[in-house]
């Protein structure tokens, strides 16, 4: 799959936009005013949840520059709530956000990978 150009305009037909609109199903883990979380379709760890803000932001760059304080705060709080609800705080977990070509971002709607359920080893390999 081709990596996202993080400076591209938001594509309302991207797969996470369709999930947000309910046009494509997802294995939902959590939802509130600011965020939706669902299990990754190709999990890389025993727990692999994607957390997405509800606003239309292509990348972390787009989100961190343009989202309101309420959206950023609500999203960050949601990630914390989900990790706590999944019981990941005590064993620990990893948050990952890919951006652009070097980051390996594939889906052009900003998302955080919340991974855990086993020791994840060193941060970067390959
Ligand atoms: P990234 O490389 O950060 O853009 O990661 C995109 C992630 O989205 C990958 O881990 C995919 O497995 C995941 N993914 C793609 N389509 C779906 C889907 N329909 N439901 C759940 N996860 C998906």
Describe this structure in words.
Strands 1-2-3-5-4 form a five-stranded antiparallel sheet, with helices on one face. The protein is built from four helices and five strands. The protein starts with 14 loop residues before the first helix and ends in a 10-residue tail after the last strand. The chain has 126 residues and is of the alpha+beta class. It is 27% helix and 20% strand. It has a single domain, classed as 2-Layer Sandwich (HIT family, subunit A), CATH 3.30.428. The model has no long low-confidence stretch (mean pLDDT 96). Bound molecules: adenosine monophosphate.
**Shape designation:** globular
Give the strand content: 15-25%
CATH superfamily: HIT-like
What is the average per-residue confidence, as pLDDT, rounded to a whole number? 96
The percentage helix is: 25-40%
Strand order of the largest sheet: 1-2-3-5-4
CATH class: Alpha Beta
The helix tally amounts to 4
Which topology does CATH recognise? HIT family, subunit A
Bound molecules: adenosine monophosphate
* Low-confidence blocks of residues: none
Q: How many strands, what sense, and barrel or not for the largest sheet?
A: 5 strands, antiparallel
Count of extended strands: 5
Radius of gyration: 14 Å
Number of domains: 1
